[in-house]
Structures are given as structure tokens and as C-alpha cells.
Amino acid sequence: MAILGNVIKGLIDLKGVFTSEVNHTENQEKVLKNLLEKAKNTQFGKQYKFEEILESDTIEKTFSKNVPYFDYNSIDKEWWHKLHKGEENVTWPGNPSYFALSSGTTGKSSKKIPVTDEMIDAIKSSGIKQVTALSNFDLPADFFEKDIMMLGSSTDLEEKDDHLEGEISGISASNIPFWFKGYYKPGEDIAKIEDWDERVQHIAENAKSWDIGALSGIPAWIELMMQKVIEHHNLENIHEIWPNLQVYTSGGVAFGPYEKSFNALLGKPVTVIDTYLASEGYIATQVRPETDAMQLNTENGIYFEFVPMNPDYINADGSIHQDAPVFTINEVEKNKDYILIISTVSGAWRYLIGDTIEFTDVEKAEIKITGRTKFFLNTVGSQLSVNKMDDAIKSLEEKFDTLIPEYTICAKRFEDGEFYHSWYLGTDLKKDEEEVATALDNFLKDANKNYKVARSKALKGVKVQLISTDKFHDWSDKNKKKGGQVKMERVMKEEKFAEWEEFVNN
């Protein structure tokens, strides 16, 4: 009998009973006041007169009026670069204990995003919220006695001056609570291995000795890990070695494009729970099984604002115009795309995180990620967001009965002087590429009126190339590194796309 599991499940259920309905508007008002109060004597707080904002009758409106939008480049150039020169109290009191390294999906050089002790506490609190939400998923008591495989970047953080540096998944894993370490796999020694392939090899070799009940990590890298374990032990599916695997916690990217290839590695269905952990903080987590939308973590160190998604508000470099309108959480509407803006206990202020979201339930503050501001393809007026591209890929999977877990696209001018959408699809599909291109084009015409208009004017056509999925993984390895928070660029500009095509052809 799973005695310990019953105890843990009982405590989780009990916490759920005594947790009152969340008031997200009140949460956000408290978070903003707390942020302003704590940072009012920093260099940033004095520059933008946080004391005066706190005295305002409409703190949210005064805050958005007085403080400009920032993206990483602008806040680093104006403020965060001072932290690397030893200055204190720049955008948050004291100095950060960590810097999260993030090349994201945009380039080879790493951003260095401050991560304070307060942010570590906020991430832990949001993690506890995720655990207590498991009471909603009707999991058996023995699930709470199983091991949890968290596959992220290396936890062997690099020491620099008075702080540590690494990817956010490595920073988070290095700060797991002591009581969780007995459940945590692959364990500290393997998690510290920097080389991805070596780390996964160790996981495969040790897989038989673990009783994995849950997996957590970015879908592409979890898939590669499972493939390696299956291959190493000559299995049909992952459940042959981990029969008690019941939950997969996805994060970092939308799970949809990976769903079919992920399920192909399983022997039976698992519960998929979406999470949204970025280098800048733990943004949201799924708390109900009735939906795959995620609830914003409105109570834990992050204040959210929302700019309506409109190409006119976005500059060529992906930043947003300072005059772009903004809404608070009690002003948003359902099923509309918004650019996400955050202010945090790590000293990010009115910060463009780069993602676009839509609310599926305003009262519950539940959202879905719909794309990236830099991945919004509008070169010739097609206005394609990543979620529309994901839908198109899913339609191809169904039509041709295949798997397409990876893809990238560029609006490229060809030798005839005309613009085409040039797609590379990661798949084993053996089909005529023109037939696939026609199916892709037809789906997008039906699904997106702006795309249909563009196809009748400046967008001449669609070109498709079918390549091995391994090419995408090798590209990530060449430009960044495998594993961790690394994600494939869904949309590339022509200069980067030329590098990609040269890489693929060679």
C-alpha cells in the first residue's frame, strides 16, 4: 500500500480544499505595489519616481504612463550592464545571485538575465502551486511515490565574480528543496554533466534503476532522451522500462507540434500538463485537466501587462513602439492576441518577454502562448502567427499520416524577384514536395484571410523542402547547444535563413 503516497496526496487535496478562489486582479495590485515599494530606492526607482507612483490614486495607470517599455537590448544597454561592473541597487536592491543565460531562439550570443533570491523564491512558490494543482488531475496515491525526471540544462553553474551563471532550468534544478531530492532524477551528479549527449547516455545506462512517474522538460529534448533509452535497451516504447510513467510536464514551447511524435514513443497515454517557465520567471502553469490552457502566476513576484498584438506596434527589431496601448489583467478580452509585458522581482521593468498570448478564460487568468513577436511573419502582409503555422503543420500530419515535430520558415525573395514562403519540414515523409506545398498553402488560405489576400498579391507562392529532423537538432547543437532551454527558430530572416540553407545543403 502506498502509505507515503496517500499522505502526500491527502495533504495536496487538503490544501486544495482550503485554498479560496483566486482574485487575480487583487493579486496583481499587491504584486505591483510590492515591486515599487522594494525598488523605490534603486537607481531605476529614483529615475522613474516610484515614490510618486505609489502615492497615485491609479498606480497601474501612472506606472504604465511613467515607465517606458524595455526589451532585453534596451534594458541591458541602459541599466543591467552596470551590474557587470559591480554596481549595486541598479534595477533591484543589491546584486542578483544568478544570471540566466539565454540565447532563446534568436542567436548564438547569450543574454544575461538577472535572477535574484526573491525570484528563486517566486519560482519555488509557483512550483508548489503546480504540485498542489495535481489534486485536480485525479492521480493515484502511488504516483506521489515515484521518481520525477527533470531534463534541463546542466546544474553545474559557472562562477563569475560574486554570482553564478547558467540556463534557468539549471538554476531552478540546483535550487530544488531538500525534501524533493529523493524523488529527483537523473540526480545531481548526472545533471551536472555539461555535454548533452554524454548526459543522455548516462540516463539511458541508469534508466532501469529508476521508477519514473513523471517527466519534465522541453518536448524536443525529452523525445530525444526517450529515443535514446528505447534504443539502448532495445525496447518498443518507453513504458516497457518505466511502466508507471503517468505525467509529462511540458514547457518552453507549445506542445502541439510534438504531440504525435511524442505519443509514438509511449505504450499508453499520459497526462500532459503545460507550464511556462522563462528565463525571466515562472509565468504560468496548467491547473485544470479540462483545458490545456495555463493560469498566470499572478501572486508570485511578476506583474503582467498586455499590449494588443498589432503589426503596427512592432518595430523591425521586434521591440514595440512606446506609444503602443497597454491593458491590465482586468481589462483584457478573451480570444485576442496580446504581447506579454512583465515587471519582476529580478528587476525587469515593463519588459517585452517576446511572447504573444491569448486569454481562454479571463476570470481564471488562463492563457495560451500563440507565438513570438519576432516570429510573427508579416513580410508581405501574410500576418502568420506561430499558432497558425502550428495548426498548418498539424493538418499536414493528419493529411499525410506522418510526424513533423520541427519546421522553420522564411519569407524569401527568389531569383525571379518574387517573394515565396520557404518552408523546411523535419520529417521522414516520402512525398512530392510540391504536393505538400499545395496542401500547406491551401490550409493557410482557408484558415487566415490575411494570408489569402497576400497570396493574391505580393506573396507569389509556397516552397517546401522535406529534411531529416536530425538536421534541426544538429543546427541547435552548432549554433547554441543541445538540451536545456534551446528552441528552434520557427521564423528566420533572410540573412539567417541563408546560413541555415548552407548548413542543410552541406
TrEMBL record:
Source species, domain of life: Bacteria
Residue ranges occupied by any GH3 C-terminal domain in the UniProt entry: 390-495
GH3 middle domain: residues covered: 299-363
GO cellular component: cytoplasm
Single Gene Ontology MF annotation: acid-amino acid ligase activity
PANTHER family per record: GH3 DOMAIN-CONTAINING PROTEIN
Name the UniProt record assigns to this protein: GH3 auxin-responsive promoter family protein
